[in-house]
TrEMBL record:
One of its GO terms (molecular function) is metal ion binding. InterPro entries: Calcineurin-like_PHP, Metallo-depent_PP-like, MPP_PAP, PAPs-like, PAPs_C, PAPs_N, Purple_acid_Pase-like_N. Its cofactor is Zn(2+); Fe cation. Keywords: Glycoprotein, Hydrolase, Membrane, Signal, Transmembrane, Transmembrane helix, Zinc. Belongs to the metallophosphoesterase superfamily. Purple acid phosphatase family. Residues 145-339 form the Calcineurin-like phosphoesterase domain. Residues 51-138 form the Purple acid phosphatase N-terminal domain. Its EC number is 3.1.3.2. It catalyses: a phosphate monoester + H2O = an alcohol + phosphate. SUPFAM superfamilies: Metallo-dependent phosphatases, Purple acid phosphatase, N-terminal domain. It is an enzyme of class 3 (hydrolase). This is Purple acid phosphatase.
Length: 432
């Protein structure tokens, strides 16, 4: 696939950003972000039938969803085989598209393939009109497993630096707690983002949840929120018993991962709350001794950015007890464009049976970093820094995992915060 990198027209982007800020779709509470690096635009120069924006997501331990876009209708077909095997298998799926104002998306293809062997390299080909071959590696069926975790990714020159660092990290799955493309109604930027991440997302499963920049709702003009996000990034919500692509869960390599929706209803009578309640009750800690949760808006935050928002305060008040009593090990969040790690915490106090909260909204977004913190630093906050970067969670075995945050230091990946975690299932005083 031939792609060309150009800078997106500045004036168009500037005007839209002003409109968004005026309508308060990006809820910012009176702080100034320092300038970020330039937004980039990845164009598509091949013919309309050539697959683009390829990404994969895990449907089950032995199944993957292959997603891609073509500008004109082509078969939703995937042919795949194990590395060095001549035994080719084919699978078919479905296509969809959406409209947003004058924009009409390309044909969005989704095909689920499997059963697949764990920890195995597969080659695959899309459609019938191209000889381009892709490859991916399935996740292991048990420990160890390494997750790359990054929030608020965007598509700037900082994003490119972050993606380069992640590509060199030998990760097996990427987890993204919201704010993917920062398209903000400019639908061509969704296409650009898909092309930007495809070299990585076509080789390892990317599991995402939504942030405020995915809402894209305008009263009267475009009433339905999350249109582009739900169409382009289909996650395994139905397989987990959820009724919404905005929240779901899955098991992978001894870890139960829960993706929550900060911008879906979360009160006690909501569908999300009831689903979460049931999902936590079904967890088998003998099978998945680790439980990890991702949200977009952080429940714990000592940065002056994004203080007092309903998606943080009210969601925490509604759901914190559920996570605490289920002995969730770690909660990752984005939204705040900086890094922060808390101790195990519950009800705003240190608690050895509470989850570790980590904010990692520092992928490379166009809005810049949130540099101002509360002073003095609360005791529950152990490490905080306003730098772009990414994190790696290496789950080594049923009881221990290594968390490392790597900051982008003049485009070099520098390990700047690291801690060994022991999960709560292994703590005799914190049994479920």
């Amino acid at each position: 696939m031939a792609i060309k990198k150009t800078h997106f027209p500045f004036l168009t982007l500037f005007v839209v950003i002003i409109i968004i800020e005026y309508l308060k779709f990006d809820v910012v509470h009176g702080y100034d972000r320092p300038p970020a690096r330039k937004t980039i635009f990845i164009s598509h120069d091949d013919n309309d039938t050539v697959p683009q924006q390829v990404h994969i997501s895990q449907v089950a331990q032995d199944k993957m969803r292959i997603s891609w876009i073509t500008e004109s209708p082509t078969p939703s077909k995937v042919e795949y085989n194990e590395f060095l095997s001549k035994n080719t298998v084919s699978a078919t799926g479905n296509t969809s598209s959406y409209r947003d104002g004058f924009y009409k998306s390309g044909e969005i293809h989704n095909v689920v393939i499997g059963p697949l062997k764990p920890n195995t390299v597969y080659h695959y080909r899309l459609g019938e009109s191209t000889n381009t071959t892709y490859n991916f590696k399935t996740t292991p069926d048990r420990f160890p497993i390494k997750f790359a975790i990054v929030g608020d990714l965007g598509q700037t020159e900082w994003t490119v630096s972050t993606l380069n660092h992640i590509a060199n990290s030998s990760y097996e799955m990427l987890l993204l707690p919201g704010d993917l493309s920062y398209a903000d109604f400019i639908q061509n930027l969704w296409d650009s983002f898909g092309r930007l991440v495809a070299p990585l997302a076509s080789q390892r499963p990317w599991m995402v949840t939504q942030g405020n920049h995915e809402i894209e709702r305008i009263p009267i003009v475009h009433k339905t929120p999350f249109t582009a996000y739900n169409a382009r990034w289909k996650m395994p919500f139905e397989e987990s018993g959820s009724t919404s692509n905005l929240y779901y869960s899955f098991d992978v390599s001894g870890v139960h991962v829960i993706m929550l929706g900060s911008y879906a209803e979360f009160h006690h009578n909501s569908s999300q709350y009831k689903w979460l309640q049931g999902d936590l009750l079904k967890i088998n800690r003998g099978k998945t001794p680790w439980v990890v949760v991702l949200i977009h808006a952080p429940w714990y935050n000592t940065n002056k950015a994004h203080q007092g928002e309903d998606e943080s305060v009210d969601m925490k008040a509604s759901m914190e007890d559920l996570l605490y009593h289920a002995r969730v090990d770690v909660v990752f969040a984005g939204h705040v464009h900086a890094y922060e790690r808390f101790t195990r915490v519950y009800k705003d106090k240190s608690d050895n049976c509470g989850p570790v909260h980590i904010t990692i909204g520092d992928g490379g977004n166009r809005e810049g970093l949130a540099r101002r913190y509360q002073d003095p630093k609360p005791d529950i906050s152990l490490f905080r820094e306003a730098s772009f970067g990414h994190g790696l969670l290496e789950v080594v075995n049923a009881s221990h995992a290594l968390w490392t945050w790597h900051k982008n230091d003049n485009d070099k990946s520098v390990a700047s915060d690291s801690i060994w975690l022991t999960n709560l299932f292994s703590n005799p005083t914190c049994k479920v």
